[in-house]
Write a structure and sequence with these properties.
This protein has three helices and 16 strands. It has a 16-stranded mixed beta sheet that branches. The chain starts with a helix and ends with a strand. The N terminus is likely disordered.
Length: 277
Amino acid sequence: MKAIVNLLLLVFISSACSTPQNSAQDQYVPKAHFDQNWAMDKLWEDGLAEVAHYRAELNIYGKTRSFDQVFVTVKEEFNKEWNVKTDDYKRDDLFSVMKVNKFARIETDNYPYHYLSSLFFKRDQPDQLYKMTHTGQEWCGNTFKQFLVEDDHYAYDYNSYFDGKGDGEMEISGTDFLWEDQLSYALRALNFEDGLTFNARLLEAQINTKVKEPILYNAQFSVVEKSDTWQVEVKLDAEKTNVYLFEKEYPNLLRSQQSWNGYKLELDTVSRYQYWR
């Protein structure tokens, strides 16, 4: 049964891509354009977390909803046995990761939405999503999704309140692509250069309450230097374009984001502290 699900997923992805298949070279994630040592800076060794608040907007039920979006970025130590933050720092299977937590409470006319997404990256691989968990809660029910690199694919586990998608798993073939949900972090590590362009496969955003077979795009990336920011345009297809602005000074904080689905971010405040205390 699992083999059949995997086959159907591959057929779906191949038919759902919004642009024709490019050459293998175009589909390869261009690691040369990313600084693999970006997260190795001593800034992340201070025991503090970067907590950034954004003035956010998203269209829900036909209305633009304004809310506070929080991004928390911090270094942690994982253990390989459980792929979670370790409690035992004497273990011999530890490795460093960067965690990016994204939290939002979005009010609507009837009830609020709560989203918490945790994205993890090996510290020396800012462009490779290692693990992602996402939870969405609203009055209709709960949704949970987990994605984890396993050899040559991502394992995808889910639970939701939707009929037919209550409890299951599938595989996403390959690992040589970016995720739309990771770009607010990964693009901070770009080797920024005015006029830089490249193509990369990009998996559509998974931060929502739905459980769907993921869609892969052959996205076009372009960088433009502004007076005090770097602008990165990501064109998923002819109808879908995201625009990101990053500060020029390290750690290249995301200043703003405007996505194809109406999701908008404008930086409000940022500080470093131990939010867990």
